[in-house]
Amino acid sequence: MKPLTHIGRSMGVALTVGSVAFAPLAFADAREKSTSEAETALEERTQFRVLRNGRPFGTHTVTFAERNGELTVNIEIDLRVRFGPFVLFNYSHQNEEKWQGNELASLRSVTNNNGEDLVVTIDRQGDDLDVDGKNFEGLASGQCVPTSYWNPQTIEATCLINTQTGRVMSVDVEPLGPENLIMNGTTISAQKYQVDGDLTITLWYDDNNNWVKSAFSLDNNDVEYELVDAPEGDLMLAWFMPR
Fold it and tell me: SS3 of 64, please?
């Protein structure tokens, strides 16, 4: 087995995509919203079981809420490596994104990478994104997409922003064609894409632009996302039509 510190250093590249850190804020905000507004909000959820070399590694949950023309996305990742009763590695990541149309308006993320605390903030400034993170501080192109993967714009992007460190990454995306996936006994028609460059990962999206699978290598370990719960509606198709 590779040293677990290697897993921690690599985690931000492939996994980072929150909700614990923002729970008090979200709760206070919810109390201010009227009951009628809450009832008309459209909400969806995507949840994955994360496997490392075929064994349970943790969970990754994405929650979508559309309200007053704004899409709020909360992402939470929890990963652990155990040896008997002992936790050898612990990783948690919470990320809140706000989207207006096809544009990212803001992002706030908090990560505990096996004891290392990391924070990233992103705010739109005109055509640019003002990024503040461990590995980058400054303006990035407004066309860059966060490494959240739920967003189908990822497969059209040439620039991604690491939501754990703020690093701006150049990527190439190659479509690999259709593939049928078996998820919870159900066949899903999906399109497969290979991302290479500063980041290497394989992604799958269904016909409604929903992210349904990903796979990558992490320090010679195979990590795979197995879909547990998928949105019932066509929220992604409505928000992110192909360009």
Answer: strand
Residue keyed to tokens 């919203």: 33
Residue 45 lies in a domain: yes
Tell me the per-residue pLDDT of 187-224, one tens digit each, with 9 for 90 and over.
999 999 999 999 999 999 998 889 999 999 988 899 99
Note whether residue 9 is domain-resident.
yes
* 179-195 per-position pLDDT tens digit: 999 988 889 999 999 99
- Which residues are CB-neighbours of 3 under 8 A, at least 6 positions away? none
E strand spans, 84-136: 86-100, 103-113, 116-125, 128-132
Taking the CA atoms of residue 236, residue 240, residue 241 and residue 242 in that order, the dihedral angle to the nearest 10 degrees is -120
> Residue type for 170, please?
S
Copy the structure tokens of residue 211: 């992210």
Q: Poorest-confidence range of 75-79, 95-99, 104-108, 236-240?
A: 236-240
| Domain assignment of residue 148, given as a range | 4-33+40-171+235-239
Which amino acid does the sequence have at 23?
Answer: A
Contact 98, 109 (CB under 8 A): no
DSSP character for 164? T
Structural domain contains residue 53:
yes
Residue with tokens 């290479």: 196
Tell me how many domains the chain contains: 1
d(CA 239, CA 68): 13
Summarize the confidence of residues 144-171 as an average pLDDT: 97
Average pLDDT over residues 153-176: 97
Residues 6+ apart with CB under 8 A from 167: 12, 133, 135, 136, 161, 198
Residue 89 lies in a domain: yes
Contact present, 213 and 45 (Cβ < 8 Å): no
